[in-house]
Design brief:
- It is a single chain.
- Helices cover 78% and strands 0% of the residues.
- It contains twelve helices and no strands.
C-alpha cells in the first residue's frame, strides 16, 4: 500500500441542512451498511459450515464466487467498454484479493478453530486502520479492538497449527488489500459494476482450484443450491453494502469497524448454535464495541469540524 493519505478518503462527507447544520443520519448511514454486511456474513458462515463436508473448503469458495458473480453480472450488467487501463488494473487486483481472502480463510478454518482464525484475520484491517489514519487517537481505538479480539480468541495461540495461523494471517493481509481496492473500485466504476466485474475475475481465477479439490461434487444440485445461498449471504449482500459504505466512509474507520466481526460471530454462534459466551468473551466483545464506537465518533467529529 503506497501513500494511503492520498489514495484513501481523508474524511467522511457530511451533508448539510438548509441552515448549514450537519445531518447526523447521513454520517451514520455508512456505519449501518457495514454492520448489516457483517451480520449477513455470519449467517452465511453458519450455512457454509454445513456445506464444507459436501464440497470441501476450496469447493465452497468456488461455489460462493461463481454464484455471486452470476447474480451480480445479471443484476448490474456492467459496461465493459469505456474504462481505462488503470480502471481495469484496479478491478483485477480487487477480484484477485477477494478470491485470495476467501481461499486463505477457509484453508485456515480447516486447520484451526474458527474463533482463532477470525481473530488472526482481523489483524489485517486493524493494521490498515493505523497505517491509513492521520490521527493518533485511531491507533488507540485499534489497540483496544486488538485487545478485544485477542481475548475473544482465548488469549492463547501457542497450540495452533502453524500453517493454519499462516493462512489466517494471509487472509488478514488480503482483507486489508480488499478494503483498499474496494474503495478505489467504488470510485472508478458506477453503482456496483466494479464489484460484479471483480467477482467474475475472482471466480474465474479460483475455479481451477475448486475443480481439482471437489471435482463432480460441485455439480450436485443440493450442493449448488446451498452454495448459492452462501454466496448471497456471504458475498453478494455484504460486499455490495461494504462497497457502498466505502464511498462515504474512510478506509481507516471501516477497518476498525471490521473488528466487530468476531463479536458478530460470537452472537451468531449463541443464537444459531447455542454457544454461550464466557465472561472473558463477553469482555472481549465489549472492548471491540467500545473501540468501534470510539472510531466512529472520532470520524463524525472530524466531519463536523470540516463543515
Amino acid at each position: 500500500m503506497t501513500a494511503p493519505s492520498t489514495d484513501l478518503p481523508s474524511s467522511t462527507p457530511v451533508a448539510t441542512t438548509p441552515t448549514g447544520g450537519p445531518r447526523r443520519l447521513g454520517s451514520l448511514g455508512p456505519v449501518g451498511l457495514v454492520l448489516a454486511g457483517g451480520v449477513s456474513v455470519q449467517f452465511g458462515a453458519a450455512l457454509a459450515v454445513t456445506l464444507m463436508p459436501r464440497a470441501g473448503a476450496l469447493g465452497v469458495v468456488t461455489l460462493r464466487l461463481l454464484a455471486a458473480a452470476i447474480v451480480l453480472l445479471v443484476v448490474c450488467r456492467p459496461r465493459l467498454r469505456g474504462h481505462s487501463r488503470t480502471d481495469w488494473g484496479t478491478v483485477v487486483v480487487f477480484g484477485l484479493a477477494m478470491a485470495a481472502m476467501n481461499g486463505l480463510f477457509y484453508q485456515a478454518v480447516d486447520r484451526i478453530p474458527l474463533g482463532a482464525a477470525v481473530t488472526l484475520e482481523v489483524l489485517g484491517p486493524l493494521a490498515l486502520s493505523v497505517l491509513a489514519s492521520r490521527r493518533a487517537v485511531n491507533a488507540v481505538w485499534a489497540a483496544l479492538a486488538l485487545t478485544g479480539v485477542f481475548l475473544l480468541g482465548g488469549g492463547d495461540f501457542g497450540a495452533l497449527d502453524p500453517l493454519g495461523v499462516a493462512f489466517a494471517l494471509g487472509a488478514g493481509a488480503m482483507w486489508a488489500a480488499y478494503i483498499v481496492f474496494s474503495a478505489r473500485t467504488g470510485r472508478r466504476f458506477p453503482q456496483a459494476d466494479g464489484l460484479a466485474l471483480a467477482m467474475a475475475i475472482g471466480a474465474l481465477a479460483f475455479l481451477p482450484l475448486g475443480v481439482v479439490e471437489s471435482g463432480g461434487r460441485l455439480l450436485d444440485p443440493v450442493t449448488v443450491a446451498l452454495g448459492a445461498a452462501v454466496a448471497v449471504l456471504s458475498s453478494v449482500l455484504p460486499y455490495t453494502l461494504e462497497l457502498l459504505a466505502l464511498r462515504r466512509l474512510p478506509a481507516s474507520t471501516f477497518a476498525v469497524l471490521m473488528s466487530l466481526e468476531p463479536g458478530l460471530a460470537a452472537l451468531a454462534g449463541f443464537l444459531i448454535l447455542g454457544q454461550a459466551l464466557s465472561a472473558l468473551q463477553a469482555l472481549a466483545v465489549a472492548l471491540v464495541i467500545v473501540a468501534s464506537m470510539g472510531a466512529v465518533r472520532t470520524q463524525v467529529g472530524r466531519g463536523k469540524a470540516a463543515v
